[in-house]
Design brief:
169 residues
């Protein structure tokens, strides 16, 4: 897997209709996607999970049930999912400038990171994910909570924001 330069909203990922998966890079090869693990995602979605959730018995998080296009703003530890907006530039600008402390965040699931996290299509087996079909970003090692909020960023511009919050034990 090649080291990616900082994305910071300059590129967007889309799935083929499944939600995104956030996984430590080292665990990604063990994710079986449509060969088995994706059945857990379907079960959780069918039981009403629309916010990000941890997959039982796995150290991964699924970003809800919607296949919204996503980018990361690594400098803010932020995953941005595009709900609506006029352009990528507009979405990037507003997501980069929004006051994160003014947002009413929903506390989400916790995962352990070994230093790098990957954002991928939850249906794709981890060992089949191509470099151009994932975002890899440096999180630092430790436990992180993924907080989320649906936010109007500007008139005619809204996003689901997911923020990694480092936890201290």
């Amino acid at each position: 897997m090649a080291q990616q330069p900082s994305i910071d909203g300059r590129r967007w990922l889309e799935t083929d209709g499944s939600p995104f998966l956030l996984s430590p890079v080292a665990l990604l090869p063990s994710w079986t996607g449509y060969n088995g693990d994706y059945d857990l995602v379907i079960e959780m979605t069918d039981s009403g999970h629309s916010e990000p959730y941890a997959v039982p018995e796995r150290n991964v998080v699924v970003l809800g049930d919607e296949p919204l296009p996503a980018t990361i703003i690594e400098s803010r530890s932020l995953i941005v999912q595009w709900i609506h907006g006029d352009s990528e530039d507009e979405m990037r600008k507003h997501a980069s400038e929004v006051d994160l402390d003014a947002i009413a965040w929903h506390q989400g699931p916790v995962l352990q990171s070994d230093g790098e996290l990957a954002l991928v299509d939850a249906a794709t087996p981890g060992d089949e994910v191509a470099d151009e079909d994932m975002f890899v970003f440096t999180s630092g090692s430790g436990r992180f909570r993924l907080d989320s909020a649906e936010v109007p960023l500007a008139p005619h511009c809204a996003a689901k924001l997911h923020r990694l919050v480092a936890l201290t034990d």
